[in-house]
Design goal:
The chain is built from 9 helices and 13 strands. It is of the alpha/beta class. It has a 7-stranded parallel beta sheet, sandwiched between helices. A two-stranded parallel sheet has the order 7-10. The model has no long low-confidence stretch (mean pLDDT 96). It binds nicotinamide-adenine-dinucleotide and uridine-5'-diphosphate. The site of nicotinamide-adenine-dinucleotide (NAD) has 29 residues, from helix 1, helix 3 and strand 5. It is a single-pass type II membrane protein. It is found in: Golgi apparatus, Golgi stack membrane.
Length: 322
């Protein structure tokens, strides 16, 4: 049994990682300040003997008693609407937060994996994006608070690896979706499904020709698990290369939900990436990993989750960017 610290453990991805490590028989400490997370994502684990929850801001000194084998640093606002609302906290958790995690790892001789992102490539000029691409990021644009925090986080992680010999792993996550996303977090999938369930029109930003490549959460978790157990310290893209325009995506959601609502067009946010698709050659070669869940399968599971939520959750504070 390994002792595992998961920061951001009450969030969308963090909670699925808690489930996976518990299922593998490990002891899990989830740490979260609940700034964008939700205890309802992990309440089913509260009575589990191998699970503990610490309410703590990881940008402040982290104290965990006892040994630790793995630290998964997943704490960070992740949706554009969140990190635009709390830009300083976003920069702090990507810088002070990872510094604290790496310092803790050094003391505990733990292995660290950090949640990096396709946003390190910015609005990419290389397509699909390989790990060798250095990116095209506007440091002083609205998304800079997230993108640069994540780039700094990678640099800090590499420095602890090189200069202090800490065992580190870097996963560059591409758009991932699934149950436990927050309906009002502004990301495109919960936005569209929430709108369909509330009987509102679906809002496309720009003309909908921008592309994304959506990965189902179970596939992502498997990729992260394999990367953590591998001996590869350089960044690895994990995502589903099936690329789609946002307009096609809206049409898929309309068909899936059977909504009578129409599509309305809103201005494209500044610096919104025009295209995004992971090159997953490295993940295939190093981890023997590739996604297994098709978008049709993943969307059906996700829609089932959202439509079975209590009705009042559809109307929890809405963060729409309009
Ligand atoms: P999320 O908002 O659901 O989860 C983030 C969690 O981190 C929340 O529970 C939040 O309360 C917690 N948190 C934030 N700041 C904290 C702090 N200072 N101290 C303690 N806890 C803090 O988002 P998510 O989609 O689950 O994203 C998780 C991680 O994965 C993030 O680091 C994000 O950047 C990264 N990521 C996600 C995606 C995606 O498509 N979901 C893509 C790329 C990268
Ligand atoms: N988007 C949209 N309508 C919405 C929310 C998002 O058209 O209601 C677009 C957004 O402008 C972007 C894409 O969907 O081009 C994905 O947005 P998301 O916030 O999910 O992720 P990211 O931009 O970080 O990839």
């Amino acid at each position: 049994m390994k002792r595992v610290l998961i920061t951001g453990g009450a969030g969308f991805l963090g909670s699925h990682l808690c489930d996976r490590f518990i299922k593998e028989g490990h002891y899990v400490i989830a740490m979260d300040n609940l700034i964008t997370g939700d205890l309802r994502n992990i309440e089913h684990l509260f009575k589990h003997p191998n699970f503990e929850f610490y309410h703590h801001d990881v940008s402040k000194f982290i104290h965990v008693p006892g040994e630790l084998d793995y630290i998964l640093h997943f704490a960070s606002p992740a949706s554009p609407i969140d990190y635009l609302k709390i830009p300083i906290q976003t920069l702090k958790v990507g810088s002070l937060g990872i510094h604290n995690c790496l310092g803790l790892a050094r003391v505990k001789k733990a292995r660290v994996i950090i949640a990096s992102t396709s946003e390190v490539y910015g609005d990419p000029l290389v397509h699909p994006q390989t790990e060798e691409y250095w990116g095209h990021v506007n440091p002083v644009g609205p998304r800079g608070v997230y993108d640069e925090a994540k780039r700094f986080q990678e640099a800090m992680t590499m420095a602890y690896h090189t200069y202090h010999g800490v065992e580190t792993r870097i996963v560059r996550i591409f758009n991932t979706y699934g149950p436990r996303m927050r309906l009002n977090d502004g990301r495109v999938l919960p936005a569209f499904i929430g709108q369909a369930l509330r009987g509102e029109d679906l809002t496309i930003f720009g003309d909908g020709s921008q592309t994304r490549s959506f990965c189902f959460v179970a596939d992502l978790v498997e990729g992260i698990y394999r990367l953590l157990l591998s001996d590869y310290a350089y960044p690895v893209n994990i995502g589903n290369p099936a690329e789609i325009t946002i307009k096609q995506f809206a049409e898929e959601i309309i068909k899936l939900t059977g909504t009578d609502q129409k599509i309305v067009y809103k201005p494209l946010p500044k610096d919104d990436p025009k295209q995004r698709q992971p090159d997953i050659t490295k993940a295939k070669e190093i981890l023997g990993w590739e996604p297994k869940v098709t978008r049709a399968e993943g969307l059906a599971i996700t829609y089932d989750y959202f439509r079975n939520l209590p009705k009042e959750r559809l109307y929890e504070e809405s963060n729409h960017r309009d």
